[in-house]
Each structure stands twice: as structure tokens, then as C-alpha cells.
Amino acid sequence: MRSHMKRFIASLRTLLCLWFLLWVTALVHAQTPPNQEQVRASYVASFGSYVEWPSNAFADSDAPFLIGVMDDEPMLRILEAGFRSRKLQGRNVQVRRIDNILQAANVHLLYVREGNSVPLRSLSALPVLTIGTGTSFLDRGGTIALVMQKERLRFEFNARAAERSGLKVSAKLQQLAINTYEGGS
Amino acid sequence: MLHLLAVMPLKRKLLLVIVMGTFLSILVAALAVLIYETSTFRPRIASQLEAVTHVMADVNQAALEFNDATQAAENLSFLSLYEGIDAGVLYQNDGSIFATWNARGKGVPIVTPATAPSAGVQHEIGRASMSLPVMRDERLLGHIWVNVTLPPLIQRLPQYGIMFGALALAVLVLGAVLWRAMQGLVCMPLLRLSVAAEDVGQTGNYAVRVQRSSSDEIGQLTDEFNRMLTVIGDRDAALQQAQDHLEQRVEERSHELEQAMTLLMQREKLAALGNVVAGVAHELNTPIGNALLTATSLNKGTQEMRQQMTGNSLGRRDLEDFVTSVEVGASIVYRSLERAAALVRSFKSVAVNETSEARMDFDLQQVLDDCVALLIPGMKHRPITVELDCPSGIRCNSYPGALTQIVSNLVENAARHGLEPTGGGTVHIKVQSKNEDPMLILTVSDQGVGIPPEHLRRVFEPFFTTRLGQGGSGLGLHVVHSLAKGPLGGSIEVHSTVGMGTTFELRFPTNAPMNQL
User: Fold this and answer.
1) Which of A80, B204, B228, B289 is deepest in the core (most CB within 10 A)?
2) Are A56 and A125 a contacting pair, CB within 8 Å?
3) Residue B243: what pLDDT?
């Protein structure tokens, strides 16, 4: 009887400890700000809803929206997870790994990791929204470049590139750009 | 008020009407605007709130999504452009405040909800707020909340005051222009008519014409007025002509009548003279006949005397008888002739005076004696006597002929009309004279039948007679009247009672006025 009691109390203690641990873990998770990669991913996903693609960019009305991620495995995973049930432009979303720039020709949105200096010239006339990091990305023909400003993630915008690609970028988005470039090759 | 309106000139009335109309219309417009304003202000503000909230939800999508609070605050600050909206808050997805905007210094500070309120409109007294979720591609990004404070009506009135002031000014200017036009179109023609009518009324100049300035009712009125003036002018001229003609004719007739009257009066005088002459002739006949008879008798006695002397049969006694008869005869002849001479003398004096109308000094008693002496013979065959009662020694400077004619006419009238119907009586002639009084009163009265009252006031009218066709000319008393008035410068009155007699009362001065003839 006593041993039964002891065993019950012990198991209850264990349970309490476990629950406490779980609770603390959850609390720590909740209090930590979403990490940089996740913010980037949400930005990249959101850009898609402020840009209008030309109608010839999609094969038909049921064609999926293709997101290409180049050289960034965490981003690929976050986006895949994020778009599992979410739609973009009213279409299902497929997230693909892009290894060669030539593979990016048929995607609608291409994310290029920071530090990757792949030339984007081959995509310049295609309806591909290219998103990268830093002003240099725009100089290489990218459309949107994520930059850090005062510890906040901001972006710059290349209007010429968007125009060349036949993309209509919402004024709401343009309004938020810290810089809008008209030049670039 | 009504009396004031009645005496007010037309110009003023028009002005009053225009001013009253202006103010009434402005008042009505103000009331209408006020009613419209109060009834539609709330819905308008509410719909504006909804629109603005929707716009704000839309424009802040990207700012929320890309966590740009600065841009969100900037977007919210555009709320200041909307009237009445004084606060806006943008909430993040988790309900925390993302950005706020507040109209500072406008009324009480707005209490903004600390966490995102549920979507929808909330009405409170004097304010309303609306909350909407901010969505993008069916993703909830956050919430927007916009507050509007309804300004009290009194704060909105000044705007309308300015508007109505401008409106009143515009309407007044318009009214003034209208008034000028009305004055030119309505008042001036009417005023011209009025002035012309007054002019015609004062001067009687029907040649005035009013110039016609329009073809409306006033123009017609002007035409009718002018036509009326023409008609009246013509009639007036015709009337004036007829009047002139009538006056001329009356003058002619009066002149003719006057001539006839003069003629008749002369004839009447001549007739009276003829009566007198007849009476005198009759009177003269007696003494002259007596004298003739006596002379014949004397002549016959003388012839008998001469025969007796020739035959020497003349005795003493015969001679004495003859002498006695001669004496008696001579005496008779003398008396008869003397009487005839006296008659002739008085006749002469009367006749001469009557015809020459000579003015002279005379003794009243003597003239009246002569007059009565002339009248007596005419009364002899009637049972009528004439009595004269005149104080002696009244000296007159007047017209004895006129006086004689007056007295003889009055006595003749009294005898013929007053006494003859009753079978006779006495005509009394009485003269009353007061000392120092230049006016004499001569009454001729009888106790005859009298004159009926309806005839009494007409007896002096010419040609008034009760014996038309029986020898009465109707001029006798008229002649008396005109003689009494004219030469004698006096007056004559008649008093009569039917059955009691008649009294004519002549008043005349001892000295007749000059230049009465």
C-alpha cells in the first residue's frame, strides 16, 4: 500500500517535472523573436502577393505558382512548410531547389541566398521576380534586394528590372522600399 | 400697418415686396439647408468613416506585412484630411498596437482601445468609430480602427453663415437690379400717368398726352388714358362752345325783352296819360258847359234888354232884374272858367312832368292834391272816394311825375281790384314823415278783398295779371316798382290779408338819388 503510494507520488513527480520542462521549453520558444531566416521567408512569401505576373507566365488557370530557391536549404524548408496549405495569386504553390540559373527560367519567384553571385542576365527578359540580398544584387539585375537597416529587415527595389520582366509591382510595396532604382543592367 | 401700406408709393411697395421676397427665400433656403444638414450629416459622416476605414485598411496592408510602422504612421496621418476624423490605430495580427495617429489639440483626447476591437461600427454620443480587419489574399494581417467625432451643429454654422451672407448679398444685388428694372418697366410709366392725370386735374389742359413705353397692360392703360383725354377734351370744347352760344342767345333775348319792356312801359304810361286826359276832358266839360249855358242865357237876356230899350218899354224894375242876372251870370261864368283853368293848369303840370320826367323842387302836398284832383273824376261814376292825409310843408327834390304815376296807379289798382268787387269804399293815401328823417313813407291802403298769398309775391312781376284779356296789361305794378326803385330811389312793399284789405308802402327819400334815370 505504502509502496503503491510512493510509486504513485513518484510517477506524479515525474509527470510534473516533464510538464514543467515542456512548459519552460514552450515559454522559451514563444519569447524568442522569430529568427532572421523565418522573417526573410515570410518577406519572400509576401512579396508574391504584391506583384502581378503577366498572364503568359502561367500555362493555364490551374498551373501552380513556382518558387525557386537557390543555394539556401533552410529557406527552402521554411517556404515548403509555409506554402503547404497557403495559396499565392490564387494558385497552389510549389517550392523548388534551383541549382543552375537555367533551371530558374520557368519559376515565377526566385530567391538567391546572400553571397551567391550567380549572374541573373539570362532571366532579365523573363517574368521572374528575383529576390536577393544587398544593393549589389540589384546591380546584377535583381528586382528586390533585402537589406538590414537599424536592425530591421528592409528592401530595395529595382523598377527597371521589374519593368523588363513585365511584372507589375504594387504601389503599396514600392512605397515601403527604402530605395527605388531606375538604373542597373 | 395696412394704412401704411395703403399710403405707400408704388415704388416703395415694389421695393418692400422684393426685399421681403429676398429675405423670405433666404430664410426658407436656410431652413431647408439646416434640415438637410441635420438629417444627412450623421449618415454622411458614417459613410465617410466607412470609406476612409476601408481605404486605410487597404493602404496599410504592405506596411503591416513588412512590419513598417513608420510608413503605417505616415499612411494614418492622411486621416487628418478628413473632416471629423480625429484618431486612427493600426493593430498587428496579435492585437498589439502597430501605429497610431491622433488629431492633437482638437477637443478632448480620444481614448483609443489598447487591443484590436472587434470589426464593425460603434456609435456613441457625438462620436462614431469603425474597426476593420486588414486582409491580403485572405490572410489576416491586422486591424484598423478609425474614430470620428461629430462636431456640434453650432461649430458648423459659421460656414453656413458665410454661405448665406454671400447668398443674401447676391440676392440683394439681384433684387436691386430687378428693382431698377421694375421701376423702369412698371413704376415710371405709372408715375408718368399719375403726373399727367394730376396735371390735367389741376390745369384742365386736355391736350396733355402720355408717351407710351410698352405694349403691355400699362401701355394699354396709357392708350386708354390718352383716348379718354381726347374724348373729354372734345366734349369740353363742345360744351364750352354751347355755353358761349347760349350766353350769346340769352344776351340777345334779354336785350329783345328789355326793348319790349321799355316799349310796353311807354305804352302803359301813354295809356295812363290817356285815362287822365279822358278824365280831364270829362271834368272840363262841366264848367265850360255851365259857362256856355250862362253866356247863352246872358246873351239872350241882353237881346231882350235891347228890344225893351228900343221899344221904350224898359222899366226900372226890368233894368234891375237884368243887372242882377248879368251879375249872377258873370259870376257863374267866372267860377266855371276859373275851375276849368285850374283843371287845365294841374293837368298841364302832371302831363308835362310825366312826359319829361323832370326833376324839380316841389311841395309834396300840392303834387298829391293835384294827383287826387285828377283821380276824382275817374271815380265819380263808382261808389269810391279817395282820402288824402298829407302833412303840409314837405319839400322834395325828386320826380313828381313818377310819384304821381305811382300814386295814381296804386289808387286805380285799389279801386279796380280791391274795392269794386265789394261794392265800393275809400282809398286812403297817407304820408308819414319823421323829423330829420330823409325817408318818407307813403301808404295807399284799402279795406277791399285783399290779395291771395300765392299772388302776393308776384304782383310786382311784369305781365302778372289776374285779368288777362279784360284790359289788364300786367304792367301796372311793375311800372310802380321800377319807378319806385329807379327815379325815386326808394322801395315798395305790399301787405295784404284776404278779406281785410291791402296796403302798399312806398318809402322814398325827399332828395332822390342822382343819375337814377
Assistant:
1) A80
2) no
3) 93
Is A46–B59 a contact, with Cβ atoms under 8 angstroms apart? Answer: no
What are B89's three cell numbers?
Answer: 490605430
**Are the C-beta atoms of residues B130 and B123 closer than 8 Å to each other?**
no
Q: Are B430 and B442 in contact (CB under 8 A)?
A: yes
Tell me which of A44, A49, A174 to substitute to probe the interface with B (most B C-beta atoms closer than 10 Å): A49
pTM for the whole structure: 0.44
Which amino acid is located at B3 in the chain? H
Least CA distance to B72: which residue of chain A? A176
- 3-state SS record for B374-427: HHHHHHCCCCEEEEEECCCCCEEEECHHHHHHHHHHHHHHHHHHHHHHHCCEEE
Q: How far does A45 lie from chain B, in Å, by closest CA?
A: 10
Q: Give the single-character DSSP code of B468.
A: T
In chain B, residues with a C-beta closer than 8 Å to the C-beta of A176 are 62-63, 66, 68, 71
Which residue among B62, B67, B137 places its CB closest to the CB of A173?
B62
Is A175 near chain B, with CB under 8 Å? yes
Three-class SS string for chain A?
A: CHHHHHHHHHHHHHHHHHHHHHHHHHHHHHHCCCCHHHHHHHHHHHHHHHEECCHHHCCCCCCCEEEEEECCHHHHHHHHHHCCCCCECCECEEEEEECCHHHHHHCCEEEECCCCCCCCHHHCCCCCEEEEECHHHHHCCCCEEEEEECCEEEEEEEHHHHHHHCCEECHHHHHHCCEEECCCC
Distance between CA atoms of residues B438 and B479, nearest Å? 24
Q: Residue B355 — pLDDT band, cuts 50, 70, 90? A: very low
Q: Is the dihedral of CA B461, B464, B465, B469 positive or negative?
A: positive
Angle at B37 between CA B150 and CA B171, to 5 degrees: 135
Q: Where are the beta strands (DSSP E) in B263-400?
A: 360-363, 384-389, 395-398
- Give the whole-angstrom CA distance, residue B102 versus residue B89: 9
Residue type for B409, please? N
Q: Which residues of B182-195 are buried (b: 16+ CB within 10 A; e: fewer)?
A: beeebbebeebbee
- The answer to whether the CB of B224 falls within 8 A of the CB of B198 is no
Asked if the Cβ–Cβ distance from B66 to A155 is below 8 Å, we say yes
Residue predicted with more confidence, A11 or A33: A11
B141 in contact with A, Cβ within 8 Å: no
State how far the Cα of B355 lies from the Cα of B472, in Å rounded to an integer. 22
For residue B276, the one-letter residue type is: V
Quick one: what percent of chain B has pLDDT higher than 90? 12
* Residue B431: strand, helix, or coil: strand
Q: Parallel, antiparallel, or unpaired: how do β-strands B85-92 and B139-149 relate?
A: antiparallel
In DSSP terms, B136 is beta-bridged to B139
Side chain identity at residue A45, one-letter code: A
Contact B63 A176 (CB under 8 A): yes
Sign of CA dihedral B362, B364, B370, B371: positive
Sign of torsion, CA B16 B17 B18 B20? positive
CA distance linking residue A115 with residue A121, whole number of Å: 17
Cβ pair B71:A175 closer than 8 A: yes
B137:A152 CB<8 A: no
Burial label, A32 (beta-carbon count in 10 A; 0-12, 13-18, 19+): exposed
Burial class (CB in 10 A: 0-12, 13-18, 19+), A118: middle
Q: Which of residues 81-110 of A touch B (CB under 8 A)?
A: 86-89
Contact by Cβ (8 Å): B90, B133: no
Give contacts of A 35-74 with B, CB under 8 A.
Answer: 43, 46, 49-50
At A26 the pLDDT is 58
